[in-house]
Amino acid sequence: MNRQLNIRPNAHPNRRRATAASAAVLLPLVLLTACGGGSGDGNGGAAGGSEVELTLAHSYTEDQPQHTCGAQVIKEEAEAADVGITVEVFPNSQLGGDADRIASVQSDDVDIDIQGASALAAVYEPAGVVDAAYAFDDAAHLDRFFADGSADQLKEDFKGASGGVSILGAWSAGARQFTANEPIREPADLEGLRMRFPGSGQYLLNAQALGAQATEVAYEELYLALQQGVVDGQENPLTNIDASNLVEVQDYVSMSEHQQNSNLIVVAPSFDSELSDEQRTALEDAVASAVEQMPGCVEEAEQEILDAWEQEGSVEIVDDVDQEAFAQQTDAWFRENLSGDSLAVYEAIRDSAE
Description:
- The chain is of the alpha/beta class.
- The protein is built from 14 helices and eleven strands.
């Protein structure tokens, strides 16, 4: 006999609306378990006769590394393992914004999500510290923190606070840089500038630690806000700066590398109960493969962007930023102003630096 869980009619992707409500109604985990005459091997997967269709959601465009080297690699590697997993990828916030999607992951309506740490802070506030300014020395440091056991306590606490959502891996999708109509080389250069920062808690803490005057502007309105002088500058990874054509309205890109643009790959609570051992292993291996490929993919994408800007002469690249001065200032600020589990996460990150 066949047992079918959480399947609804008319769930074709072209009929799904990009809202949290549609995600919750139309896109649950699909698990098909065949109960045939054989005894099976008890492990599910291809040998056990079960097939799982998983939804993987994120907010990035199909041209960004998070999709090409992240989501697509996870899909391809998980399906290639031939253990009964198929993955359907929904980019561009098709299943809702970050806050909506993490709620859908918690309720098992989205199976896999690629989220920034600051968005996950809505579920467990100390998770946002992963996005603290200069917490990580570089992308390799972030990778080590999540791979060598240093992040185990954070993962455990997040899983408990979120109702069973697991963090399978993490990567940096590039460092965040400053742009403005004047160069920013040291903390004093931020004085008097209205700098756009995202409105989430950790980003606003970063602004304070860096000594910036934070102004909240929606990302979709950022180009116009810069063009009209509502804000003087902003901060984003190079891929975002390029995707939004911000160099058309900014004269300088200052390579501050003040924050690793984190992505955490999270899976719904059903990961533990509805997947076989070999399916869980296949998905974990697929995420590990994406994590391994991401640094080279991001580096290549960023170099292409920098080369194009240089060739076009569209913006001046400031590569002599005093990152050490910024890092010392932010470290002192966070150690003084963070407390409890948030301070513990920050100290664990800094302790894991080489």
